[in-house]
Amino acid sequence: MNTMVLDLVDKHQETLKAAIQALHKRSFFAHYPENPSPEIYGENADKEAREKFKSSLNQRFEELQQEGPHDWVGQEESPYEQQRLGVSYPYFEPETLIQRAEEAFHVWRKIKPDMRAALLMESLDRLRDRFFEIAYATMHTTGQAFLMAFQASGPHAADRALEAVAAGYEELTRFPEEMEWEKPMGKYNLRLQKSWVAVPKGISLVIACSTFPTWNTVPGMYASLVTGNPVIVKPHPKAVLPIAIVVAELQKVLSENGLPPAICQLAVDAEKHLITKELAEHRKVKLIDYTGSSSFGNYLEKLPGKITFTEKAGINSVILDSVDDLDKVMQNLAFSVSLYSGQMCTAPQNFFVPEAGVKVGEEMVPYEEVVKKLADAVAGLVNNPKAAPHVLGAIQNTATLERVKEGKGKVILSTCDFSNPMFANARTCSPVIYEADAADKASYSQEMFGPIILVIKTKDTAHSMELAQEMAQEHGAISCGAYTTDPAIKEQIKEAMSLAGTPVSFNLTGGIYLNQHAGFSDFHVTGGNPAGNASFTNPEFVIKRFTWVGFREPVV
Amino acid sequence: MNTMVLDLVDKHQETLKAAIQALHKRSFFAHYPENPSPEIYGENADKEAREKFKSSLNQRFEELQQEGPHDWVGQEESPYEQQRLGVSYPYFEPETLIQRAEEAFHVWRKIKPDMRAALLMESLDRLRDRFFEIAYATMHTTGQAFLMAFQASGPHAADRALEAVAAGYEELTRFPEEMEWEKPMGKYNLRLQKSWVAVPKGISLVIACSTFPTWNTVPGMYASLVTGNPVIVKPHPKAVLPIAIVVAELQKVLSENGLPPAICQLAVDAEKHLITKELAEHRKVKLIDYTGSSSFGNYLEKLPGKITFTEKAGINSVILDSVDDLDKVMQNLAFSVSLYSGQMCTAPQNFFVPEAGVKVGEEMVPYEEVVKKLADAVAGLVNNPKAAPHVLGAIQNTATLERVKEGKGKVILSTCDFSNPMFANARTCSPVIYEADAADKASYSQEMFGPIILVIKTKDTAHSMELAQEMAQEHGAISCGAYTTDPAIKEQIKEAMSLAGTPVSFNLTGGIYLNQHAGFSDFHVTGGNPAGNASFTNPEFVIKRFTWVGFREPVV
């Protein structure tokens, strides 16, 4: 094996170095181009992938190197077509998966960090050739529009995975493998030969979600792998195909290089046998990565003897104080709430607006007008047939649709019909805006996943900050948008939200949105509030996946 | 404040740099000399400290800057005199301590990392002048002999604290405070000004033990402090004075520099009101460091919403396979088990000896003879009046004495009388050796704290390794000693014990012992088995004490 792998180490060395450097600088870095243009990805890449995706429907997914399935299962459904994809995947009993992972563990942990990194980076390069295919698979499981599906599930996810590999590699090589320790004792020196190994924790379970099946999955998966842990990927039953392709490509690289593909396995639920709890509770599973609901996340976090990385629900706030150009601000926010119909963990929900209104330049724009401008901006986007389908996409599941329809409070914007010219049967709905009473905290203190905006009238900006902080501290938050032209207020917001562990985007207008977190620069869910501790990718995300063990003996 | 603190930053800069470098190299590094010689610490240091210690008995400890105590309490007793010290300490209700810590938090977290590091390092330098006094306080609370009390509670503890400060400072300054992020978008570049802050978690509770009241306490205390968290130190009620001096010196440095001394408070139990649980369960306590029993440690680890660093019980093994000089090996091991009468978390307990005996050079020395040599070496040390009192010290508490007397199994060495010429009333006992049956795992699968050795006859070295690994994996281990001249067996032992997260010292003879873990080089309790995850000092030990939070806004 080693000669081939050494070639891979050479091949990826420069990129690994650049990635580690970017992690430290936190400057812009992207290894995989986010522009799905033919010049970059090839003239026929899109067309071929579309055809390949179509031909995969109603077939078995045969790419995985996992032998002897107990069954073939599948329950995915396209939010664009509202009909089943019909793709089926091999099903294995949890005990079989664990046993195979355990065997693979004792091979994988012995592979040196530089080789593990190279093998994993090679798998990401292979993935690059399948970004378009993954994009269509993502569209038709999550409901994302094409461009987001391409970017989030393809290049952005691959960059996040690369980031995890780079961070893991750095930590694994942070201390010397061995050294001579010499302690002066006066008349003589004590000399010990010392060495250290980074021992992986064991089997890693990565539990994926239905809305970002690769972006939220590959960081934990690659972080566990680079640190020597075998991984079992448990996809959401409604969003398997995108991550199945990722696992299959990795398995190919592993087996080409003489390694057991069981180093990373796909573990699909049978329709009548959901296996997540059985896997998570298994005594051999030591690491758990999870994206999803707070209730299940809290259950996982309480399992004894596991190290968990979670991304759960968050209530993201927007604090409106003072702006230069209110229309630009509202356009930016309307886009943020509409992007993938609010089905992002970073989408804003609670908009805090002072009762005296928002200062625009030297003028105060009254509360009612601010709210109206927000509603108009959203309606304008929704009613723009050239933009809307590409921004809003479709609704991943019917529960979200129900939630949008059932929302309570004074309705500010109720429109919920919106058609997609390309997919007549798409499950869609446009954002709704409700007004919540600041005094009725229960009405805005939980995440309402989907395109639901709550406007909360506050006494003043101090009150807005206080509520935004409280929501984040008590119920979790993953992002925050704030608009102020007053440097003192900006500092107060930083202060309030930093204590709530919530990153803040200030005064965004134009082509950048508070719900976008960039790899190598923006930390994501760093553990400062109940929304979770996924923490990709800061050092904590990789360090907790292995144990330092030292050996020493006298120098002879 | 700042001018004075800036002077401190200058003063300690070089040491901080050297400490960070040593952490990375893991080479020998000691900032505080371990030799209690008059040339280093001053002609009268010892004498003055002894007098100061004596004069502090039966007095109130008035050095703390904690006003308005509810009571004065104290229950320490000297294991050398078996009578009460009579020192009393101010007692505060938990809610008072929490409230003061909370106020101090909002001052301390705003102090820059370089200033925090400098203030903390200054406090360690002040401590240097009190090492002898701390040594006597340690002797007469823990029962350690003078030299260990001096080294472990003084220079070694201060070096461990310095190590935590250095590791914390490095992590806090690992990423840029701010930077301009520029993303090429084709026709234009998106430009964001980004900044990051390391937000401390909140109030930190450090729960100390009765045997190493400073060595096991200052790492967590200084790690929390350097990362911006206020600390409440809850000493063991029987070992307060050594750490009270540490807290008092730190409080002096803080208040001299215009900072609230409540940044670090001492929280002593009242005799009828033990406050540990109340403090640990308080919702404002976010970090817990703990050294002590497994049962209480497991309770702490299960508290929701806390980050815990624990050092609990471990069963440390010695694996005997083959040696060059059996007498030298036995002398080394006899010292290891006798040092502070086995009351170290790193002391070995289970000695695995193959039934065919141990290979010495080309010869097999039978099992019985190996065991006899061990017993003889221990007896030899115990019966050497020049060495024994200085090695064995005294027994910290009567429960340990009871345990030694009650031990079950076939007695190999039972002698339990041993007198200290300097302290006629000292609570002492010499090590006992029992033989346990390998098949009766229950008889050797728990820590028997104190000078208790179990010899376990195994089928062969493979069997020894298997049992040592199982004990560590299932019940925890903090150290391991192994003796083999066979490189293949050495690799197997490394393999077995690395999977059990246990560091191994091979073939130690002469003046270095398996129970000594050196700051800046040997990681201590890194979290790979049930003995805990204290992990001083690897990056995990400091990273988990703060949260990264990012801010960004368009470049104007």
CATH class of the largest domain in chain A: Alpha Beta
Q: Largest inter-chain interface?
A: A-B, 63 and 63 residues
For the terminal residues of chain A, how far apart are their CA atoms?
34 Å
Radius of gyration of chain A: 25 Å
CATH architecture label name of the largest domain in chain A: 3-Layer(aba) Sandwich
Based on CA inertia axes, which overall geometry of chain A fits? Answer: globular
Instruction: Specify the structural class of chain A.
Output: alpha/beta
Proportion of helical residues of chain A = 40-55%
Could you describe the largest sheet of chain A, including whether it forms a barrel?
A: 7 strands, mixed
**What's the number of helices of chain A?**
18
- Report the portion of residues of chain A in β strands: 15-25%
Q: For the residues shown, what is the average pLDDT of chain A? A: 96
CATH topology of the largest domain in chain A: Aldehyde Dehydrogenase, Chain A, domain 1
Query: Strand order within the widest sheet of chain A?
Result: 17-18-19-14-12-20-21
Identify the CATH homologous superfamily of the largest domain in chain A.
Answer: Aldehyde Dehydrogenase, Chain A, domain 1
> What's the multimeric state?
homodimer
What number of structural domains do the residues of chain A give?
A: 2
Low-pLDDT segments, ≥5 res of chain A: none
The counted number of beta strands of chain A is 22
